[in-house]
Amino acid sequence: MMFASLSSRTLALLAVAPLALAGCNKSDNGAANAPAGSVTAVAPPAGKAWAETFAKTEDGDGIIVGNPKAAVKMVEYGSLSCPHCAKLAQDGMSALTGNYIASGKVSLEFRSFAIHPQDIPLTVLARCGGDDAYFGLIEQVYTNFDAMNSQTKEQYDQASAAMKLPAAQRYPAIADALGYTAFFSARGLPEAQQRQCLTDLPRAEAVAKASEAISAKGINSTPTVFINGNKVEGAEWKNVEAALKAAGA
Question: 223 to each of 18, 74, 110, 115, how far by Cα in Å?
């Protein structure tokens, strides 16, 4: 069997785990480290902007936007079906990209953490357009989160039935049921390309295995944010921004 070597958690994500509607095990406590010295802004290469500079992480599981040598490194473990992650993006993405990343002081590494079954097709589709489109598609998902989550609730039974289909049919059927196909089509990702990505089972397996590795690190909620290796407690934008400033950004 293709997934015989994977853990029970990974198998559940790839197979027929109950479709989740909300909930991210988010902490509500906030803290920031003591202020550090200010970091000097770094100009991007000629003709480029740091907010449009992307690279894969060494293991290929995450994408980094911004100056790859930025002094302040932000890492976010986020679920594309998590309302708290959406709120963080809605509150802070404009300032994060427009101020901090654009300055060359900060880079953002995003790692998709599949805590709900629908995170797998969402992540596959966000990655389907290539590295340069990845952050823009994630931002679109979070910006339009309430409408997308409403459709998840309305189409819950249809999507749950799709979870029981053979693997090659499962993710296209879930994407159709939850409106993902239409959503990504409207944002420039051709439907044929989407279906090709969703039926490519190693892509789904890679998302599940990466999430299993995240869980093995002891990360069990989303969003979980680190600034230069230090966890931001209570990952709301006000706390994340305070931690960025404390790190010198």
Answer: 21, 12, 10, 11
Mean pLDDT by 10 residues, the chain (249 residues): 38 55 54 63 94 91 93 98 97 97 98 94 97 96 93 86 89 95 97 97 95 95 97 95 97
For the record, the structure tokens of 117 come out as 């079954």
How many of the other CB atoms lie within 10 Å of CB of 226?
Answer: 17
Q: At what angle do helices 201-216 and 191-198 cross, to 10 degrees?
A: 60
- What does pTM read for this prediction? 0.86
